Amino acid sequence: MNRRSDVRSDGVRPIAWDPQAGCLCLLDQRVLPARVEWLRVSDCGAAADAIRDMVVRGAPAIGITAAYAVALAARNSYRVTATGWRDALNEDLTRLAAARPTAVNLAWAVAHMRGLFSGIDGDPFPPLLAEAERLHQADIAANRRMGALGAELIDTRCSVLTHCNAGALATGGYGTALGVVRSLWSAGRLERVYADETRPWLQGARLTAWELVEEGIPVSLIADGAAAWAMRSGKVAWVIVGADRIAANGDVANKIGTCAAAACARRFGVRFMVAAPTSTIDRDCPTGEAIPIECRDPDELLRFGATRTAAPGAEAWNPVFDVTPADLVDVIVTERGVVRAPDTAGIARLFA
Ligand code: MRU
Question: pLDDT (tens digit, 9 = 90+) per residue, 146-180?
């Protein structure tokens, strides 16, 4: 599969099911934009590795990958034992769900797929694959809806700032935060996107900038530390980000640096929008305190690629997400509607 076959007018599709080969194809986001390479995945363990190692990343994309991975696990397990396949795949699914702890979409997708097991008679693969494909398409539809709802909130032509990559690459397609950007651009109300480079994986520099350039949307890359100054000097009217998990009170876990962007936005009179599907809302987490924050290998900070750049002997602390308190968020946009000044009651109304 090459890149062109998977480019749509609204951006790339990072996940594809190959019906001929019977395997999942993941666009390898570790090597973008230098190389466009696809990784073929035919078992659950390989999918868990791909999630852990950042081949596929972004909360909704991780969730969709996990859904396909459950179907693969069931296929392989059923080949070994037609009667005991449910028990035989438990270990695989536990490992899959633990591949990355913060994005709730992963645990959500595994639980959702597991929930179908009891109703399946015979070969579990066809119905589970169909469900994974349905979730994949539903995610794209949800993003389009969020894009429209988010863009409606921005009535004056302006520039916006985004952090990390919450685009087509981080989802089934179209994107959450970048879905709003795409809709705003189509409506003629977007001047320019300022994209934080997003240390240490450079999701902004490598992925967001790539997606936007592909579509001719004007993008200026900025160092993470320049975001406050971009807001202070009036360059942007909105900050628009995605989310990895939203607590029941509206606290938002997202890529490390999001909390700083939200605090600066409030201080400098810039509006702060979070775009995320309702599958990212974890109603079992009462507040952000309960959200597990992934800490990754310190080497991600101490090195740049293969080269050690930090002073010898220096240690590093590498939390890759933070939690923005709900009171710094102006609006959460979901496919079910928007929640202004989010709090527990506002989030609950989405599910009423
Ligand atoms: O570590 P990553 O690249 O998986 O982090 C991704 C983010 O923080 C995104 O902003 C979030 O998952 C929302 S993606 C629509």
Answer: 999 999 999 999 999 999 999 999 999 999 999 99
Q: What is the C-alpha separation between 297 and 302, in angstroms, rounded?
A: 9
- Asked whether 324 lines ligand 1 (CB < 6 A), one says no
DSSP letters, 85-99, are: HHHHTHHHHHHHHTS
- Point out the ligand 1 atom lying closest to the alpha carbon of residue 276: 15
The angle subtended at Cα 283 by Cα 280 and Cα 284, nearest 5°, is 115
What global pTM score does this model have?
Answer: 0.96
Q: Is 124 in the pocket of ligand 1 (CB under 6 A)?
A: no
What is the C-alpha to C-alpha distance for residues 182 and 236, in angstroms, rounded to an integer? 16
The ligand 1 atom at the shortest distance from the C-alpha of residue 164 is: 10
Residues 89-116: pLDDT tens digits? 999 999 999 999 999 999 999 999 999 9
Q: Write the pLDDT tens digit of every residue in 297-344.
A: 999 999 998 899 999 999 999 999 999 999 999 999 999 999 999 999
Q: How far is the CA of 120 from the centre of ligand 1 (A)?
A: 33
Q: With left for phi above 0 and alpha for psi between -120 and 50, is residue 148 left, alpha or beta? A: alpha
User: Which atom of ligand 1 is nearest to 62's Cα?
Assistant: 4
CA gap 184, 158 in Å, rounded: 9
How remote is the CA of residue 87 from the centroid of ligand 1, in Å?
32
Is residue 73 lining ligand 1, measured as CB closer than 6 Å?
no
Dist. CA 259 → ligand 1 center (Å): 14
